[in-house]
Amino acid sequence: MHRRRWLLRLLEWGVLVCVIALLAGMFLNRMGRAQAEIERRNFLSTVRAMRAAVLLQSVVRPKDAAPGGNPAAVYREQFGLLPTGYVGQLDRPDPASVTGGGWYFDTGKRQLVYRVRCERYFRSSLKGPPRMRLEMVAKEDFHHLTVKMLNDGKWLVGEKK
């Protein structure tokens, strides 16, 4: 009789541990998705701010704005800010050497690059670590500039299109 009670209690504890482990796993998955969504929104917000800075410079001082420039430098010049995690201008950079969430300007390719932090929730078409590349290009009217995102991958969280 005592042995049966002991086995029943052991079974109850086993079920309880399994339920807690399942709930913890679901919670951690949700937190990972939420973190990736926050990263995606911060990235898009930073890109919008850089587009505004580049457009402003191309309107106010068109001679200082040229396609192929560094949008982060224009952002700093116009608003006194740099993207969070900006490491500077690099010549022939190794994307793996930049930590997730970091920005750098590739001087050879004339591209601003964002290294994705939440790799699990991003599918990249590039070899190596997932990243997004941006270029400063002329708009359709050829009078102003904008920041164009290259089609390097997609976020697996956020708005469905």
Brief summary of the model shown:
The chain is of the alpha+beta class and 161 residues long. 42% of the residues lie in helices and 20% in strands.
- Quote the average pLDDT: 89
Straight-line distance between termini: 62 Å
* Number of DSSP helical runs: 2
Strand content: 15-25%
Low-confidence spans: pLDDT under 50, at least 5 residues?
Answer: none
N-to-C SSE string, H for helix and E for strand:
HHEEEEEEE
Protein name: Type II secretion system protein
Organism: Desulfosarcina widdelii
Provide a descriptive summary of the structure in words.
It comes from Desulfosarcina widdelii. This is Type II secretion system protein. This protein is of the alpha+beta class and 161 residues long. It has one domain. It is 42% helix and 20% strand. The strands form 2 sheets. A 5-stranded mixed β-sheet has the order 1-2-3-5-6, with helices on one face. Strands 4-7 form a two-stranded antiparallel sheet. Strand 2 (103-106) and strand 3 (111-115) form a beta hairpin. Helix 1 (2-60) packs across helix 2. The termini are far apart.
